[in-house]
Amino acid sequence: MGCLMIQNKVVFFFLVGFFFAKNSSFSNWINSEKSLFGQYFKAEFEFNNTNSNVTIPIVLYVDSKNKKFRLEAEDRIILSDTTTWKSLLEQSNQIFIQSVTTNERLYFKLLSKEYLVKSFLKEEIKNDFNSFHFYLKEISCFMAIFVDEYNIINHINFEINGNSFNINNLHVSNSFDSSSVFELQEQGFIIFDLRE
After folding, report:
1. Based on the number of CB atoms within 10 Å of its own CB, is 82 exposed (0-12), middle (13-18) or buried (19 or more)?
2. In the CATH scheme, what architecture does the domain 2-193 have?
3. Do 86 and 97 contact (CB within 8 A), yes or no?
4. Cα separations (Å) of 137 from 100, 103, 134, 174?
5. What was the pLDDT predicted at 59?
6. What is the 3-state secondary structure (H, E, C) of the chain?
7. What is the distance, to the nearest Å, from the Cα of residue 188 to the centroid of all Cα atoms in its chain?
8. Within 13 Å and on the Cβ side, how many CA atoms surround 5?
9. How far is 168 from 47, CA to CA, in rounded Å?
10. d(CA 23, CA 124)
11. Average pLDDT, integer, range 183-191
């Protein structure tokens, strides 16, 4: 389940971090009325646990309007709709279904404009990067987003409970088939329903 916990953090860290990438000034972004992206987006990136030096390539699909996501990492696919969490393990041909925890329900709540303004600590310019620093109180997480002169995320750093994580090599697009990506083909898999 350690890998599941890491992937759980990946989703939250990415969703929070992505919202701050579009302007070089936090105040410009937070006061803007423009939508940063549409209902759907796809992100490909590397998630790195700096303490263990483990890097995992990730593909993340998000339906922000309906609060759904799909995360693909190594031989695992995770789907969530903030009520149910499904984890497909391709190598063992198993699917685990469980209820979403309280922390997982926070993913989209913590992305509200009011919460993010409250969480903002400071903005810095250093080594050709603008960085935005936040403290996400509910999960005891420090976050820094580093944006280059073209307003593109270079990397995102997180520190939670003494552990450090990074998101690198981020590529985002809005073009994918959303009609099937948030569904899981369960036929042929052993299903373990762990919901209470």
Report:
1. middle
2. Clam (2.50)
3. yes
4. 20, 12, 9, 31
5. 93
6. CHHHHHHHHHHHHHHHHHCCCCCCCHHHHHHCCCCCCCCEEEEEEEEEECCCCEEEEEEEEEECCCCEEEEEECCEEEEECCCEEEEEECCCCEEEEEECCHHHHHHHHCCCHHHHHHHEEEEEEECCEEEEEEEEHHHCEEEEEEECCCCCEEEEEEEECCEEEEEEEEEEECCCCHHHHCCCCCCCCEEEECCC
7. 29
8. 5
9. 7
10. 14
11. 89
**Cα gap 138→150, rounded to integer Å:** 32
Q: What is the pLDDT of residue 32?
A: 44
Output the average pLDDT for the chain. 79
Could you tell me the residue ranges of all domains in the chain? 2-193
pLDDT > 70 in the chain, percent: 74
Q: What is the mean pLDDT of residues 37-54?
A: 84
Q: What is the mean pLDDT of residues 105-125?
A: 76
pTM for this one?
0.77
Closest Cα partner for 26 from 131, 155, 142, 170? 131
